[in-house]
Amino acid sequence: MESRKNRLPPLAANILIFTAGDPVMLVPMVQRVFLGWDRPFLTLAADWLLEQRDALPRLLVVVPTTQGGRRLREALAELAGALLAPRIVTPGSFLKTPDADVAADWMEHVAWLETLEQVEDWAAYQELFPDPPAGGAAWAGGLAREMVQLRHALQENGLTLAAAAKLLSRSVEAGRWDALSRLEYQMERKLQAWGWQSRSRVLANGVVVSGEIAGIVLAGVTEMPPLVERAWEAWAGPITVLIGAPQPEAHAFSSLGRPLACWSERTLPWPDGTTGSVRLVADSRQQAAEALRAVSATDSASCEIALGSADTATGDELARAFTRQGWPAFHPAAERVTSGLARWFQVWSGWLTDPQLAVLADLLALPETNVLVGGRRAELADHLSRLRNDWMAIRPADLRQRIVTHRFRSVAQRELAQEILHATAALEKWRDDFLNGNFTETMTCLLDKLGHSGAATSAESTAMIAWPAEAAPLMSQVKYGPGFWIDLMLAATPPPTPQPPDGRVLDAQGWLELFFEPGKHLVLCGMNEGMVPARNAGGPWLGEAAGKQLGLIVNANRAARDAYLYQAMLEARRLDGRVDVICAKSGPGGESLLPSRLLLAADRADLPARVQFLFRDIEPPEAGLRWHADWQWHPRKAEAPQRIHVTSLTTYLACPFRFYLKHAVGMQSLEPDRVEWNARDFGNVAHEVLEKWGRNPDARDLTQPAALMAWLSAELDRIVAEWFGPRIPLAVRIQSEVLRQRLAWLAQVQAASRADGWEIIDVEAKIEIPLGDATVVGKIDRIDRHRDHGTLRIIDYKTGKVKGVESEHRQKITAASVIPAHLAGNSPAVHGGVANGKPVDFLWRNLQLPLYVISPWEPPQPMSPSTHGWTFPPPTSRPPGRVPSGSPAKSPQVSFGPLRKKSVMTTSRCSLRAGPVRRCFRAFEIFGVEHAHSSSVSSDHAPPLPPPCPPSHPAGTTTATPTAKP
Questions:
Q1: pLDDT given for residue 953 in this prediction
Q2: Are 242 and 220 spatial neighbours (Cβ–Cβ below 8 Å)?
Q3: In terms of CB atoms within 10 Å, which of 81, 437, 829, 875 comes out highest?
Q4: Sign of CA dihedral 312, 313, 317, 319
């Protein structure tokens, strides 16, 4: 049998042509080597290169992609072990210019930006911009990026905008391209003034291949920039083209191995039977599931699988699906998530633009900030979030204002707030250095400091730290803000190369990389039109017709390339392998997708069957499926709260699990980014005003509504100033005026109540009621006493909608009522009563007022003069009621018997309705209130309470004011 070495042509040698005289050495011809397609191209190319083992160190091997080059190196290492490998590059590397005076892309971006912003008369460019560009800072930056990208596209054929305008001078777009060329001239002049030349201008002079290499090997290069293709054809050294096709296909390739247009007109194979299948699914997620089924059905090893997709989103799904099934997979083309210093500087740019506390919170959430604030970053971030939620602080000045005026509960809280101020001051110092100092020096110092955050950050810092010094000369000539330069630095610094997961056994490759996969079982996803064949985006500047006139790579070229790659990959597995092709009916966003035209390249007789198969209806992936949770949440175990607020029992009566989450675990929904008072803020401010008024002996005895209103209004202004200082948000100013009008109504009601004999004897009275192993605590907003008959009344301020006593505290149980499961059975929360002369059952919903009534309250000592020396003796025994033992988090139940026959409950309903500003522009009824002062409720309609202990109250009737939820 003829050896492999004899069957493979050697590296191209110089060709001698003899004439009548001495021999003349001519330019060597390019030699094409057809390796066949009976096996995957990677194994064929690796075998051929090993045949040239001695010449490899002097060869330059060109492969289509970087990932293909990595796979080729791995194949050579597996076959030969220790080997002096050749230098492996991609076609794009020939467009890189080593000249030191060639401007980088970010420099060209700045030049375009300056050029566009300095245009004074856009009438000269009317064919390019019929309407002058809109003002603002963003339009020039976006247009400058488009110009850089347009020139990049033209570089593949060595064209500038001026050269392209000449080639298109007879087209309908001639005027537009002429205007572009004139703008380009202005931009080039600006670059020259800065001492740079553009890469487009350098490439327009052509590409010269280095003479230091012995030969070039084009290994499976199916697409090449026209400029590079001309450079290879003009090179004086030997070029060998490795083509993954048999010799009879030679007519379908150019001299350098580029597939010709005839590939687009071919009938392409259809995998079926034992050699493969074509599968139609609903979306990318089902593509991944179907790929799993195809692999599991063959029971192939991971090293025998060639997995990939022409669609990036499907590639991500493939990597996730196979990893979940125990095959750690890696998708090299996955969209990279911004992380590390790039993410940190994006947030830092926001801090430079507008130093709000929301941006500070984002900075404290990033680990790199730890070295700038002196440690304890996570603790500071958590406390800052709570302070922003409690104080509605927006800027550092708001934080400083509230820290000075706020009454902290402990010294530790104040110290932590001071640490937040120190961290804020440190970051403000860096910001001031950026805005007012030398950008280059400040950025260098900052990168050096951030480099101490960790090993990964140190590598990123080292990669970035050279950029400020490189950009310093340009910064001295153009004036932009630090955020602009930071964005340029991030764009100019390549992101870290994504690293595969530990134990990776499979790669989800892209379309071009699959050609270099040696696996016998090919699973090919994303076979949809627009993805295979690939399609140029085009954009607003370069259409298909213009690209063809300019000699660029157009959609027709890619259609021929992809048709060849598809057939070659299928033929390589025809004898000893399998191909499963999968395409979807819809994309990740729900958009409709068409099958690739390659799947429809069939004979006339076979085409109807393929069309019927590929365009049939597919059941949505959710059809016929039952929902089930991907995971089950297990809340952490927490100790039962030892102090239970009286209002929290309402939550327990409604749902003990919500009670546990809110009051035991501490789950709360925060609103740190609000710019107006929420209902809680509105109520807190109203309560604070009324508390200060109730504690002032002179103010609380005022009987004139005008004087009382003046006092309340002044106190409201003082409290708002404590919150915000001189910079009060517009929404809060509107809300404070709403509250001021409600306080005006209260002043009238209070003046009448004071004249009627009601005197305030205590405000914010603290109560504690033992409940099993815990204690129920609360604060009674206000306790009044009548100066004539000594009757007491309890007032609880509410800024929400006010309901009656019955509807607020209990509800009548009817046939339609649903009793919570934890209250079913013989629960004290369900009790008997009478309504409309008939016995009915009631369900407790709120225990606030009943607990206030039985609470062991002690009056302040000494009593104020307004009480005329009257004292309120403390209770002599524990408050009545049946209190169960055990954990209060499980069964905080209290039962109340009927009132004494002579007792009455006086009700006074008063509403100061609260709400965000968006609710404050309704009709004037938002200031309306319900008021039924001293209306009696008979014992038949009162909530049942137990018989009281021996009298501990002065002569008179115990009174209570019903309340409503906010």
A1: 32
A2: yes
A3: 829
A4: positive
